[in-house]
Design goal:
7 helices, 72% helix, mainly alpha, transmembrane, 160 residues
């Protein structure tokens, strides 16, 4: 028979400690980072299989950056390392990724005629939308953060 006290106990640390929490996976940021990682990996595979293999570096870098931020936010590194302004870094990553994906998707769809290039272009347009939505959400978070910080400014003190 099992010990009734051991049923509520946490599982022993192991591989499950590397997995993100369910709360983060259900959050909007977790889902966006997961979607960005998956789309970037699919686009990377499509470019490898296509004639447009010269475009494969951008999706690979975006995949690695999205994966890094996914695990950084999931393990709460953003709360431990206060020296990095995480929302600004995430905003810049999303803006550049949206622009780069849009540009290489247009080039892949218009210049190359093989199916893998066309698929990479279509997935690239989808990734552009996901990254644009992410930088819109992150921009709103940045504006909220900056408005909170502006109450400490000299102009805010003069009106009081």
């Amino acid at each position: 028979m099992e010990d009734p006290e051991s049923e509520g106990a946490a599982p022993p640390p192991g591989l499950s400690s590397l997995l993100p929490s369910r709360e983060f996976l259900r959050s909007r940021k977790g889902q966006l980072l997961l979607a960005e990682s998956v789309l970037s990996f699919i686009i990377f595979i499509c470019y490898i299989a296509s004639l447009a293999a010269s475009f494969m570096m951008a999706p690979l870098l975006e995949f690695l950056l999205a994966l890094f931020l996914f695990f950084a936010y999931a393990s709460k590194l953003n709360e431990k390392f206060k020296g990095v302004h995480w929302p600004l870094a995430d905003f810049l990553r999303c803006v550049t990724a949206a622009i780069i994906y849009f540009a290489i998707s247009i080039a892949a769809v218009s210049k190359y005629s093989d199916g893998a290039s066309k698929a990479a272009g279509v997935f690239g347009f989808a990734a552009t939308i996901v990254f644009a939505f992410d930088f819109y959400i992150t921009f709103n978070d940045l504006v909220t953060f900056l408005k909170q910080g502006s109450s400490d400014s000299p102009e805010g003190r003069k009106t009081e």
